[in-house]
Amino acid sequence: MSHVPHELHDEFPDQVTKIHELKEKNAHFARLADEYHEVNRAIHRIEAQVEATDDFTLEDMKKKRLHLVDEIAAILHG
Questions:
Q1: Is 43 in contact with 65 (CB distance < 8 Å)?
Q2: Contacts of 9 (CB under 8 A, 6+ apart)
Q3: List of residues 6+ apart from 7 with CB closer than 8 A
Q4: Are 8 and 21 in contact (CB under 8 A)?
Q5: For 29-54, how does the pLDDT look when each residue is reduced to its tens digit (9 = 90+)?
Q6: Which helix (H) or strand (E) holds 47?
Q7: How far is it, in rounded angstroms, from Cα 66 to Cα 73?
Q8: CB atoms within 10 A of CB 21
Q9: CA-to-CA distance for 73 and 14, rounded, in angstroms?
Q10: Cα separation of 73 and 55, whole Å?
Q11: Contacts of 28 (CB under 8 A, 6+ apart)
């Protein structure tokens, strides 16, 4: 298990400029990116044992992060 957060620029290294532009120009994309950031940081805090939770909650959070990545990818590559 990695204790390094999965930032959007790490998930999509070839799309950094487009991510920045979409955050500024597309409110829906900006909301998705913000939500991804919140969920991702929460997962990172749990994995780094800064915060505690049960395995089911962590698994649900990881599924939510994956769903957000899929939505973001669809916009980036759409």
A1: yes
A2: 16, 19
A3: 37, 40
A4: no
A5: 999 999 999 999 999 999 989 999 99
A6: helix 27-47
A7: 10
A8: 12
A9: 12
A10: 27
A11: 75
